[in-house]
Structures are given as C-alpha cells and as structure tokens.
Amino acid sequence: MTTLVTGGAGYVGGFAVRALRAAGEDVVVLDNLSTGHAETVPDGVPLLITDLRDATAVRAALAGVRVSAVLHFAASAYVGESVANPRKYWENNVVATANLLGALLEGGGAPPPVVFSSTCSLYGDAGGAPLGEDLRPAPVNPYARTKLAIERMLEDYDAAYGLRSFRLRYFNAAGAASDGTLGERHDPEPHLIPLAIGAVLRGPPLRVFGCDWPTPDGTCVRDYVHVEDLADAHVAAVAALRRGHAGGALNLGTGRGSSVRDVVAAVERASGRRVPVLEAPRREGDPAALAAAPGRAADVLGWRPSRSSLDAIVGTAWRWHASRG
User: Fold this and answer.
1) Residue pLDDT, tens place only, 56-80
2) What are the distances in angstroms from CA 248 to CA 62, 101, 155, 162?
3) What is the mean pLDDT of residues 280-307?
4) Which of 65, 123, 309, 324 has a CA-to-CA distance to 133 between 20 and 30 Å?
5) C-alpha 233, offset from chain centre
6) Residue 230: which of 166, 170, 186 has the closest Cα?
C-alpha cells in the first residue's frame, strides 16, 4: 500500500514522510521543489518532481503508482504574500488540488482517501476563545479562502465520488526533529519562532507586527503545535480512513495560546541571549488570537500532542538552527 505525499519535500510534509516510514508505509513524494528541498526526502523514497498545476504531468507521474492514500501538503502558505498576489494562491492551491483529485479519479473504482493539510486561518478573527470545528468559517485573507475552497471541494468529491477525506486544520506548526536532523527552513522565512531565533543568531531584529491587539500583552496569540505531533496525527488519520472512517474536519492544536512576547521569552530561555525586537505596524490579514479546541481529534484519532509545550518546541528549534549557524 503506497501513500502519496504531495509537498513531501517541505517542512510538515517532510516530517510526515518520516512518520509514515516509521509506521511501515511505502511512500512516494510528489513535489515541484519550488519551496521544498530534495534532501529532505529520505533515501529510498521515490521523488516525483512534478507541478500540480500541470494536469497532464500529474496524470503521467501517477500513472505507474498504486496509490492507497494521499497526504496533500503541497500549497503556497504565506498570508502576506496571498494578500499581495492572490492569483498565485488560487492557482497553486485550488487549481493544483483539482488536478490532483482529477488524476486520482481517473483510475476507476473507489478513489484513495485523502488527508488534507488545511489551516486554522479559515476561522478568521473569532476572538480569543478556543475554536471548535463547528464554528462557521470566516477567512480574512486569500490564503485562508483558498484552503476553505479546497475543503468544500473535498466535501463535494466525498459526496459525489466516495472520496473520503480528513481536513486537518493546523494551528501553528513549529519545532524541529528531536534528534536534530530536520527542521524548518523557508526562503523567505515567514514564521515567528525561526525569525526570533534568527534575530539572535545573525539579525536583523525581530519585527513584531502590532503591539496594540486586544490580547493580554497586546501582541498576537497563536496555538503552537510541534511538527512531530502533527506528523503523528497524519499517520493516525490515514489509518482511520483505511478502517473505513468517513473523515471530516479536525483541529490540530493544543488549546493553549502563546503570544509573540511569550515566544520571545521562550527563545531567550533556550538561547540564554536577548532577542532584539523592532515594533512594527499591524500586518493586514492577521487575526488577533487563534487557539484550538482540540477535543475532536483526540476522540476521533486518539491524538494528543505530547511534545508541544512552548519550551519543548522552541528548544528543538533552537538546537537545530544553532547547529546550522
């Protein structure tokens, strides 16, 4: 049984590939390497270098693969960029997903189940209370709107073609491998924890976008979950779909919110150094606070994040980044 991982040369996808292999799965990665790294893919795992926006190329790449399940990570995922260039996001995310699903349906018979990398951003600015899956989506940026569109597409395909799917709504993926062999590296880097670490290691100062949000310390609040915990959730989701579960939307978070100032303090504890900070105006498209109500994932998948305290996340990230200079 071969699990196809789109975007498996990227950050969360790379950790999911490792977790699937540890669970005894045969894995094939499909990635265009626009933001991923070929060396992230473990030895022995086939890498199909293919752009999902090219429907013909996708069909050709998958023609010889007997796919039993799909983990779909491939996407553009920068909020600020999506505001400036929404066309890129509708093409890279929505059009690409339609091409992928079309290729999966061409084989005839029941299509393989899909685990989709979605986002908590589709809840919009819903206030500081933990967010449950039944909350009506209200996305405030193009990135989140494309993720919601894909969720709706999957629901329609589930109903019409029997394509069962889990839509896993990540809160903030963060951290690095416990053994120090894999971590987060984007270019440009948009995420707070590596940016704060980078400010310590080499500068420039960390820009804090808004210190006047309606939160306890005035900075944005997010629910950080360790990337290895996220990878475990994907393995559990594949197993549940193979057992016949109908799928659905699930939050992946801890239920605990940490502010930007909390993260800065955690980096200072891990590094023993001060994080240089530069206060900046609010950034368009940012909600003030996002934290999960994670109970449904625990009930459905038996998933409970065990590595996701803020200090544990930041500690693994610091060790990985510091080892790379």
Assistant:
1) 999 999 998 999 999 999 999 988 8
2) 25, 17, 8, 13
3) 92
4) 309
5) 12
6) 170
Q: Which candidate, 13, 41, 45, places its Cα nearest to that of 26?
A: 45
d(CA 317, CA 112): 34
pLDDT value at 285 more than 80: no
For CA atoms 113, 308, 225, 252, the dihedral sign is: positive
Residue 208: which H helix or E strand, with range?
A: strand 206-209
* Residue 106 or 100, more confident: 100
Catalytic residues: 143
* 287-140-310 Cα angle (round to 5): 30
Mean pLDDT over all residues of the chain? 95
Amino acid identity at 321: H
| 3-state SS, one letter per residue, for 176-196 | CCCCCCCCCCCCCCCCHHHHH
Angstrom distance (rounded) from CA 75 to CA 28:
17
Q: How far is CA 199 from CA 9, 189, 208, 313, 316, in A?
A: 26, 12, 12, 17, 17
8 A C-beta contact, residue 237 and residue 118: no
Residue with tokens 């473990």: 42
Q: How confident is the model at residue 267 (pLDDT cuts 50, 70, 90)?
A: very high
**Residue 209's CB: how many other CB atoms inside 10 A?**
17
Question: How long is the chain?
Answer: 325
Q: Enter the DSSP assignment of 274.
A: P
